[in-house]
What does this fold into?
Amino acid sequence: MKPALAVAAFLAVALIPSPASAHEKETMRGADVSTLQRSIELGQKFYDARGRRGNPYEILRQAGVNYVRLRIWNDPASGYSTKEKVLEQARAAKAAGHKLLIDFHYSDTWADPGKQFVPKAWEGHDLAQLEQDVYDYTYDICTSLKRQGTTPDSVQIGNEINVGMLWPAGRVDNSDFGPLAGLLNAGYDATKACSRRTRVMVHTALAGNIDAAHWFYDGITAAGARWDITALSYYCMWHGSLANLATVIGDVKSRYGRPVVIAETAYPYTTENYDHLENIMLSPAPCDGIPATPRGQAQEFAAVQTTARGAGAIGVFYWEPTWTAIDGNGWDTEDIENSGNAWENMATFDDSGRINPYVRWLR
It folds into this structure.
């Protein structure tokens, strides 16, 4: 183990409270607003439930949000979700009274269950070097945020890493979780060396599959991975019923002795499309017969929050509530100007920029 990693590992063991005992009573009422900065710069205006123009961070706070999640990419072609942009956005979020979750993708573009691309600057690095890369990068971002007075309250070491991160070195092959655990611990140690109070999440999209969740979290546990909060994505269209969600949350909370957070969820408020790119979700009633209407969106989101909390989760984050279809804020990091947005009907702000008056982050 490298000297910096060894010191941080000692600090983690000596100084950090056990994850099961820390912060159990906090409720994370979260919103991932990673595309918001670009929208504002393009001229998107935001309005509260009464139609009054305002600061979107404040409008979200009025709707119950107390936590902002921001993804970070290493060197994206778009120039957004970079270190510089995340530092700027963190200041805006903290100024509005929000806590901060930083979502490390460790990639120059989207990382999710189907792809975990190594950043270009790290290409060709072996596992040992990638561990050092993860440590150095995580520590640099965390300490840069700390220096400007916006220390992250939580971080994710990877995004939806169902079968690992930084492929191929960190991909889980033949149920060998050792390489992945090394990468996760590098991120954990760097975070704790920066701020021992910052909590570390390990995030998968396995809220719908208890067997897969056991395979993954049992695997990293046996390999010695350290983390503070178990994070899951839940979209009812892809991850099943609320009853199953409750079962998975309760199970993983008990099995791993850590708080659980739903790091991503969303639901459509309309089937209309406001740009040239077809929306991801088209069905008029994707789940449980709940319609894709403003009231339906609010009903489903409330049901997810109530179910998650009832099962023992400490928080739910809505994914990209501010990502309207304004021209130039597309999904493709290599063509942000023209690629379009397939998610705008899942935002909680409509095409005119007004927040859905029925949606609440429940206290």
